[in-house]
Design a protein that fits this description.
This protein is an alpha/beta fold. It is built from 20 helices and 5 strands. Helix content is 51%, strand content 6%. The chain has a 5-stranded parallel beta sheet with strand order 2-3-4-1-5, with helices on both faces.
Amino acid sequence: MTLFDGNIDAMRKQAPLAARMRPTTLDEWVGQEHIIGTGTLLTRAIRADRLASLIFHGPPGTGKTTLAMVISHTTQAIFLQLNATSSGVKDIQNAIEEAKSAIALYGKRTILFIDEIHRFNKLQQDALLPSVENGTVILIGATTENPYFEVNKALVSRSMVFELMPLSQANILALLVRALADKERGLGEFSIEADEAALEFLANKANGDARSALNALELAALTAKPGAKITLEDAAQCIQKRAILYEPGGDNHYDTISAFIKSMRGSDPDAAVYYLARMLYAGEDPRFIARRIVICASEDVGNADPHALQVATSAMHAVQFIGMPESKIILSQAAIYIACAPKSNAACEAIAAAYEDVEAVQIKKIPPHLKSSGGTGYKYPHAYPGGYVPQEYLPDELCGRKYYHPTENGVERKIKESLRWVRPAAETEDT
């Protein structure tokens, strides 16, 4: 159990760059604007030093422990820290006793920060509960797991839960630039320069993890030749990823996504997975890829396998919920399914042809029997055998027009068969 140490000189000598560059005030904070933005509830509570118990959860390197450090430098309360990986029930009991003494002797509250709180077993978490309930300690827990599954439900119900998201590339780039310039805690005293491409590469490859990017920058700085700039090649070596030709917004970006889509359309799952891996390796937004898979499911598979759109849409939602790196598995499953599915662009062709008629043909009115105002002559299909009765649905100017021509592929073969007796003339022409 330790108090957060504010001795910057000691941190400079011993701690890695990521630890040295941790902000100590809200004014230094970067990212997580949804919870630490101007006027947000948590920001107001921290500034007013009126905190209730909190649980922060999110991926590594998103600022959970750093946010606790900011609170430690802001609050007037006693601030204690435990790490669940190395602390037991006895440590919890000692912290609670200290908290009781702080109230009795100084009239001060105690904030107890527990890192990796999900690693506490039920007995350890239960030991905390009475003191959190009666206000002896204000709990701040940090976890990479979903607290609703991994933390005592009673503790969760008595805490405000905040989810920290992976930092944006712009957030991480700002932190890297700050670290290069900072002469007290960063690398500023060494007058090290870095190519813009190198910094962008580190920010991109960090996948929202500021710690990873800062550690890689420090390694590049320590191994750089005196007077030399940190290059893209240096950055790639330090983050242990090869720099590939893929610039978001550039030609190679569009060429790669085009190859990915055409591989799915061409029923080549191997090529589709390769281009998917290439995009993810280069740091492409997985949500962008997921949206393209959804489009391909409808445009190129369509009703030949209606389930493809469900798979793609489910993948898109799962990617938003799960995040990287696990999302690469979800995207792979969806891309392979779309690539292996029977293909039909009949739905795409149908809406394109209909659009052409909307632009080219001026209709006078909607058929009277289809109007919402209760026009006469409408035949209710369910009142007839088979749920179908012949009647015209298109405007007079477009009578007989056929936009949808199902293929012989997959489920569309059955759709085509079912339409033969509904519009036999059109289907006779098709065959």
